[in-house]
Amino acid sequence: MAQSPYLSRVQSEMRPGVITQDGFLGNDHRELQEILIEDDATVKRLNTTHAAIAARMHELMEAGAEGLGLPIDVPPHFEIQVDSVRGKLPCPFMGGTIVQKLNTTVFNTRLGREITYTDLNIHMIEEHGFYEGRGSLFRMPPEELAEILEMDLREPPPEDEEGATPRLCVRKDDHDF
Ligand SMILES: [Zn+2]
């Protein structure tokens, strides 16, 4: 299936220097559609949803924000630091969403591994099932997110009301994904 003109436009918004200096795709030269489909399949295989992953990221960001810029301990064994950077960023999916620049670093002391994500990452995962391209600074493979953020994957996730992923922050008939 050819990529829709909408996704091609989104993909050009993701190039370096358009919204962010480094862009969102790293050295991933696949079509955006292919990136979305592959990560969507991974999330399904993990027995979770984009919404559940984003909710966990949001939950830990809120817990870490209590540290007011300093790292704080969050049970059971996380060290979380939330840094506010001046400025706002528009979502490259062009739905009109603008988010604060906020970086959350979650260090999992049990695993000795950490991950840093922005509020835009949370939005793009929740609304678009987009985890950035390979080699991108903020690329977050869904399996790593689930592991480091210790998501409970034993329970089946609630049914996605739309049934179709990835969801997009524009009207459904604006594209043919
Ligand atoms: Zn969006």
Mean pLDDT across every amino acid position:
89
What percentage of the residues does DSSP assign to strands (E)?
Answer: 15-25%
Q: Within the largest sheet, what's the order of strands?
A: 1-2-3-4
Give the overall silhouette: globular
Radius of gyration: 16 Å
Give structural attributes:
single chain; 177 residues; alpha+beta; 4-stranded antiparallel beta sheet; 4 strands; 19% strand; binds zinc ion
Structure, described:
It is a single chain. With about 180 residues, the chain is of the alpha+beta class. The protein has one domain (about 5-155). It is built from 5 helices and 4 strands; from the N terminus they run αααββββαα. The chain has helices spanning about 5-15, 30-45, 50-65, 120-130, 140-150; strands spanning about 70-75, 80-90, 100-110, 115-120. Strands 1-2-3-4 form a 4-stranded antiparallel sheet. A hairpin with a 3-residue loop joins strand 1 (about 70-75) and strand 2 (about 80-90). Helix 3 (about 50-65) packs antiparallel against helix 4 (about 120-130). It is globular. The chain starts with a helix and ends in a 29-residue tail after the last helix. The relative contact order is 0.20. Zinc ion binds near residues 91, 97, 128 and 169.
Quick structural summary:
The protein has 177 residues and is an alpha+beta fold.
